[in-house]
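Hi R.,

As promised on Friday, here is the backbone we talked about, encoded as structure tokens. Could you run it through your design pipeline when you get a chance and send me back a sequence?
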């Protein structure tokens, strides 16, 4: 579970990596680990700390798929859509998940409970289709077992 964002905690996270060469990426990763996302108000501080322009910081943030700039839903479900999983019908998983959780791919449900995200290869191709539910990987997911996986691993209201 992520902490609620606050600037003072973010500064402590940033200060941890000032001694590292190329510490910007590590700091961004630590901010995501702490808050689930990178608050844009930190760009000037990050730029000053790591001797970059704000555009340079934005460039790094936008390069990496996992560096989100908006708060995440309480439950994040990632569905692999790369070739191996796609061939094993991962698209069906997205349909079931979107219908069940009443949200669209790439969208956060209005109440902030669920978010479904497409990802491209989780490194588990031989036993796809694969999904990740709140950082826990599940293989060989089917239309029949996906609901049980969601019920077991997600907090909050389904609908
Ligand atoms: S193709 Fe889905 S894990 Fe690699």
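Update: got your reply. Pasting your designed sequence below so it's all in one thread:
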């Amino acid at each position: 579970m992520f902490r609620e964002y606050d600037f003072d905690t973010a500064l402590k996270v940033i200060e941890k990596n000032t001694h590292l060469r190329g510490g910007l990426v590590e700091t961004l990763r630590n901010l995501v680990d702490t808050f689930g996302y990178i608050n844009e108000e930190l760009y000037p501080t990050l730029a000053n700390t790591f001797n970059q322009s704000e555009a340079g910081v934005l460039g790094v943030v936008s390069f990496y798929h996992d560096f989100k700039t908006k708060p995440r839903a309480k439950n994040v479900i990632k569905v692999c859509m790369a070739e191996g999983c796609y061939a094993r019908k991962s698209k069906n998983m997205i349909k079931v998940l979107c219908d069940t959780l009443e949200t669209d791919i790439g969208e956060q449900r209005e109440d902030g409970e669920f978010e479904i995200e497409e990802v491209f290869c989780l490194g588990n191709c031989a036993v796809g289709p694969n999904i990740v539910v709140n950082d826990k990987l599940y293989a060989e997911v089917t239309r029949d077992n996906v609901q049980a996986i969601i019920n077991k691993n997600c907090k909050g209201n389904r609908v």
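One thing I noticed while checking it: The radius of gyration is 17 Å.

Thanks again,
M.
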